Please model this.
Amino acid sequence: MKTPQNSGLAVKKWSLRFTQRWKAFGLGLCIAALGGCASSAPEQHASIDTGWLLSGAAIFGEPLSPEALPEDDILGLQPQMRAYLAQVAPDANPRQRLQALLRGFEQRDFTVEYRADQTLTAAETYQQGVGNCMAFTVMMVAMTRALGAEAYFNQVEVPPVWGHDEEQTFVVYRHINMVSESPRGRRVVDFNLAAYDPVYDQRELTDTEAFAQYYSNRGLELMQQSEMREAFRYLRKALSLRPGDGDLWANLGALYSRNQEFAAAEQSYLQALQLDGRHTIAMSNLERLYRKQQQLELADYYAEKARYHRERNPYYLYYQARNAYEHGDFKSAKRQLKRAIWQYEDDHRFHFLMGLTSYRLGDLEDSKTYFSQAFSLTDSPGAQRAYNQKLQLLIDGP
Model:
């Protein structure tokens, strides 16, 4: 998963105690039913031939053999890793051995430097000392299980970030960390504490679900490197594990679009929408594809459909508010934040930005109320320190 750069380890024990008014769906998340948001869809004649899409014939001129799909040893341990684990508190129970393993990482017995574009196996991550959150989590799950402790993959629905590049084809990544549960509690191990917050929706993944995301990540990285045959192999492998995952079909569409195979890209995006009718990434990519082909009626339809969902997404409203605040348009920022908080009131960042905005507008009492709410909603020492620093800078002035 792509996350902001951070080379440290975040380990947190917590109890999940929060209420949610909606369920986030990560990049491309959406929270409202479409229900009359736009005019009826223009007539489309593209029937979806999933067999053709999965064959790769549109790019390579011939179907890819199923035997050509990758079989990475994702959780395999190399001898060096086994030797290290053998001396990690060998006489202790599994929970104590896990604690010793985490202390060893903190003391730099082994290290991993964050690299956003490095989705690696457990052995590769350990050997090379680099990786993204997926690579780090794969390594930690493998090592934790080898110690005899329970460990599973945990998907955290980190809010999306929207860009303004009209030529961009959007793809879907998700944030993954590790959870280990024992009678003593629930331990979360995360590469980047800034990307993890108990306020976000999250769920346990099966190994198959996590492996599908691993192969999808690798496919997208290979696509960025213009290794198109390898990229297709990895994306195809992901879909063989999770054929009903709309995110994976949207990513396959991005690969086809990158290779100028627009008919296949269109069908891939439509398949993503057939599986998830609120998949805004697929909508946005269809809008770009149709606009490029001068099919303006279809382009406008999907642009409006995507806009409808985004503007009912509190994180999109927060993004818009933050942009307005940074440009000094505090009234617009406040309007957007009011809508965001009405949609979802439990994210401390919404309240802190509203506190800053109210302060800039001279509403000092309101700003105190929102700052207080922001602090009450986060138990992250890092977030609280950052907020205190920002408030001090605000008080000190330029």
Notes: The longest helix spans residues 207-224. Residues 79-310 form a domain with the Serine Threonine Protein Phosphatase 5, Tetratricopeptide repeat fold (CATH 1.25.40.10).
